[in-house]
Amino acid sequence: GEDVEQSLFLSVREGDSSVINCTYTDSSSTYLYWYKQEPGAGLQLLTYIFSNMDMKQDQRLTVLLNKKDKHLSLRIADTQTGDSAIYFCAESVNDMRFGAGTRLTVKP
Amino acid sequence: NAGVTQTPKFQVLKTGQSMTLQCAQDMNHEYMSWYRQDPGMGLRLIHYSVGAGITDQGEVPNGYNVSRSTTEDFPLRLLSAAPSQTSVYFCASKGSADRDYNSPLHFGNGTRLTVT
């Protein structure tokens, strides 16, 4: 099975907050990442968190890390239609391992 | 500043044909890699390279070959295409050859391959 797991779909209304969740299995992961993929494009790094941190905030993005439960989340405040994309969680152990991606749809 | 460039963007092959997917980066990155993206399965690592002349297998290497004769280029070869290789292929690079170093991967825009 997947080492990194995410739900496949999330739909929110414009202006609401979006929360995308991820679980990983390798406790030795040093860094955990969130990437964004827009249609027809490659993945772009959104943000990352070092494994000794609990939270990281970057403008509208908040990353929470619960190492005990191996749970990572990405919160997007005031979600806009331009945030519609696929969001990938990834862990870095020896290689980068990606989840299947969560497709975020933002409705006006 | 081109970053990571992949060609072609689209390709249709018949079973048994061979082809090479091209990847070039102009950032002088040591580390380069190939992933395939399939619905519901995320990205899976095919092959990677930590520098010119050095390549290694990833999670799903069967049916693919790579070489790294220069720092800039990392082509992926399909010797005898199969329908199971229908996928979107991404090339990625990063600055440090240390795979655990916090250096983000830079991705190309992908090659969509269909094998009939």
The average pLDDT of chain A is 91
Shape, per Cα inertia axes of chain B: globular
Q: Major sheet of chain B: size, sense and barrel closure? A: 7 strands, mixed
Q: What is the residue-mean pLDDT of chain B, rounded to a whole number? A: 92
Write a short abstract of this structure.
Chain A is mainly β and 108 residues long. Chain A has strands at 4-6, 9-13, 18-24, 31-37, 43-50, 55-58, 61-66, 71-76, 85-92, 96-98, 102-107.
Question: Top keywords for this entry?
Answer:
heterodimer; A: 108 residues; mainly beta; six-stranded mixed β-sheet; five-stranded antiparallel β-sheet; globular; B: 116 residues; four-stranded antiparallel β-sheet
What topology emerges from the helices and strands here?
The complex is a heterodimer of chains A (108) and B (116).
Chain A: E1 4-6, E2 9-13, E3 18-24, E4 31-37, E5 43-50, E6 55-58, E7 61-66, E8 71-76, E9 85-92, E10 96-98, E11 102-107
Chain B: E1 4-7, E2 10-13, E3 19-25, E4 31-38, E5 42-51, E6 54-57, E7 64-66, E8 76-78, E9 87-94, E10 106-107, E11 111-115
Parallel strand pairs in B: 2-11
Antiparallel strand pairs in B: 1-3, 3-8, 4-5, 4-9, 5-6, 7-8, 9-10, 9-11
Written description of the protein model:
Chain A has strands at 4-6, 9-13, 18-24, 31-37, 43-50, 55-58, 61-66, 71-76, 85-92, 96-98, 102-107. With 108 residues, chain A is mainly beta. The model of chain A has no long low-confidence stretch (mean pLDDT 91). Chain B has no helices and eleven strands. In chain B, the strands form two sheets. In chain B, strands 2, 4, 5, 6, 9, 10 and 11 form a seven-stranded mixed sheet that branches. Chain B has a four-stranded antiparallel sheet with strand order 1-3-8-7, with no helix packed on it.
